[in-house]
């Protein structure tokens, strides 16, 4: 049976002991947000980057109502691709989905990379705002939203090509998929207790100028995890893997080497 999700599967011809890397994009993006990482790390290990349900080339329906559905999709993809274990990386909403995955199949996760994300459940005000935004995107599409948030997703001083890529991903996202994910995100659980018991190493990354998930939140996430390192990326906002890929990749490479060396 063909996998439900569209995905990119590269590498695997390098060191057979290198742990596969699975990359989970954020909202409202697609797997191309990981291009600076897939191009580099596929030389040394297998790298898999799916489009989440409702995003990119993956189908929108049936729409998901909670993060458990996203995690089940990823687990099914790992089954189809015969990936027994991996390092799981996620940015923003993708980081929260990575947390959900760890809660559901921890035996398959050898390391967590959590970038510009939060383990805290949504507040009542936040739930109301996300539902209202879902309604707005269904009415208006994503162009107006993309115009408004572009310079919060990436810093105002970001490279124009990076800005164009981010804007293009947002405007290409189908409103039905984005709205469903926002409703799921509004109902997400609190992952702090789960992460406080994590038995795998973690890397927490945050852009120094991120206003969605500021540095103090990343520091709190880092302190929560039993075995974690923290990387604050200067000159970046919410998407440091795109804004400062060399710095992001250096931290990622160091972390992956550490995971690979674990028995």
UniProtKB/TrEMBL annotation:
Q: Which Pfam families does the UniProt record give?
A: Abhydrolase_6 (PF12697)
InterPro entries registered for this protein in UniProt: AB_hydrolase_1, AB_hydrolase_fold, AB_hydrolase_sf
Q: Which Gene3D superfamilies match?
A: alpha/beta hydrolase (3.40.50.1820)
Query: What keyword terms does UniProt attach to this protein?
Result: Hydrolase
- Keyword Zinc assigned to the entry: answer is no
Q: Which GO terms describe its molecular function?
A: hydrolase activity
Any idea where the AB hydrolase-1 domain is? 21-251
Q: Spell out the protein name for this chain.
A: Hydrolase
């Amino acid at each position: 049976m063909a996998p439900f999700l569209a995905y990119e599967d590269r590498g695997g011809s390098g060191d057979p002991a290198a742990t596969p890397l699975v990359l989970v994009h954020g909202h409202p993006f697609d797997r191309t947000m990981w291009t600076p990482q897939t191009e580099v790390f596929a030389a040394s290990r297998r790298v898999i980057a799916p489009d989440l349900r409702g995003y990119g080339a993956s189908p929108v329906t049936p729409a998901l109502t909670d993060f458990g559905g996203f995690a089940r999709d990823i687990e099914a993809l790992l089954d189809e691709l015969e990936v027994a274990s991996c390092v799981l990386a996620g940015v923003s909403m993708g980081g929260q989905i990575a947390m959900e995955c760890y809660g559901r199949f921890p035996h398959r996760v050898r390391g967590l990379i959590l970038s510009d994300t939060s383990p805290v459940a949504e507040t009542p005000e936040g739930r109301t705002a996300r539902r209202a935004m879902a309604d707005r995107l269904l009415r208006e599409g994503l162009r107006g939203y993309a115009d408004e948030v572009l310079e919060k997703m990436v810093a105002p001083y970001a490279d124009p090509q990076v800005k164009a890529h981010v804007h293009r991903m947002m405007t290409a996202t189908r409103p039905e998929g984005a709205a469903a994910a926002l409703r799921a995100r509004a109902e997400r659980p609190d992952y702090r207790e789960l992460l406080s018991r994590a038995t795998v190493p973690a890397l927490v990354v945050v852009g120094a100028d991120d206003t969605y998930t500021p540095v103090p939140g990343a520091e709190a996430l880092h302190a929560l995890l039993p075995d974690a390192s923290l990387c604050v990326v200067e000159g970046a906002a919410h998407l440091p893997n795109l804004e400062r890929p060399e710095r992001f990749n250096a931290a990622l490479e160091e972390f992956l080497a550490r995971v690979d060396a674990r028995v």
